[in-house]
Amino acid sequence: MTAYFGRRYMLSASHRLHTPALSAEENRAVYGKCNNAHGHGHNYVVEVLVGGEVDAATGMVVDLAALDETVREQVMERFDHADLNLDPLFADRVPTTENFCKAIFALLNGALPQGDLEHVRVEETENNFFECSARG
Amino acid sequence: MIFLTRRATFSASHYYWNDAWPEEKNRQVFGRCAHRNGHGHNYTLEVTVAGEPDPVTGFVVDLKWLKDVMEREVLAAYDHKHLNLDLPEFKHAIPTTENIAIATWRRLEPAINCANGAKGGAKLKRIRVYETPDIFAEYRGEA
Known about the structure:
- The structure holds two protein chains of two kinds.
- By secondary structure, chain A is of the alpha+beta class.
- The model of chain A has no long low-confidence stretch (mean pLDDT 96).
- The two termini of chain A are 23 Å apart.
- Chain A has one domain: Tetrahydropterin Synthase, Chain A, CATH 3.30.479.
- Helix content of chain A is 26%, strand content 34%.
- In chain A, a hairpin with a 2-residue loop joins strand 4 (116-125) and strand 5.
- In chain B, strand 4 and strand 5 (135-139) form a beta hairpin.
- By secondary structure, chain B is an alpha+beta fold.
- Helices cover 32% and strands 30% of the residues of chain B.
- Chain B has a single domain (2-139), classed as 2-Layer Sandwich (Tetrahydropterin Synthase, Chain A).
- Chain B has a five-stranded mixed sheet with strand order 3-1-2-4-5.
- Chain B is built from four helices and five strands.
- Chain B is elongated and about 60 Å long.
- The A-B interface holds A 1-9, 49, 54, 57-61, 63-65 and B 16, 18, 20-21, 29-31, 93-99, 101-102, 128, 133-140, 142-143.
């Protein structure tokens, strides 16, 4: 029987939305406050949803401690208290939360201890969030 | 198709233990959740139904009716109970958040999908159970 297990993690990071494809003026027009030259930060909430069979012996889709360890290795150590713009993943793309969400999905997909990655949701603030799902 | 969700809370205790395993393995796999005296949570239940808004009322489902169904079928059974000791569905299934989501679906699905109360043919779509604000499980009726 397929069910889904969800877990929320919090990390703090800074970013600046700016693309060399646009002029300074155009960057300001497109990204507004998020184009501030020295960047700014957020407390991001990363929600990870894992789908799979409920193990008959444990009643679990995925072991919580093992999932925490994977997320710690793949996501938290890399991005918590980091400047996203300096990460190689964002060398050629803007660290919008859309792209951040896609990057986290790619890092976790295939790395899970059990189950399949159903979605990654990243909340940038309480009022905006982004989702990437296995369905594309 | 509109998805409509109603939220409710209940408080219950549970522990994780597989009788087929020796004590040591239970403690290794389930950690603190294996303490036999149990522990408790304030659970949040989200029930999502899907359907088309009724052309007369504009409702996918009457929310008061849905609230009553949730109270009758789930909250009356689970709230302020010990899930392992008080509920027949957890005599043989460990009351993990995953299994609580599945059991909640089984309690609600006949009442929501078969009843005249869900006018317009709204169907149960998703059960989500939060054990804490950061841990939850979903069941969508999949085999």
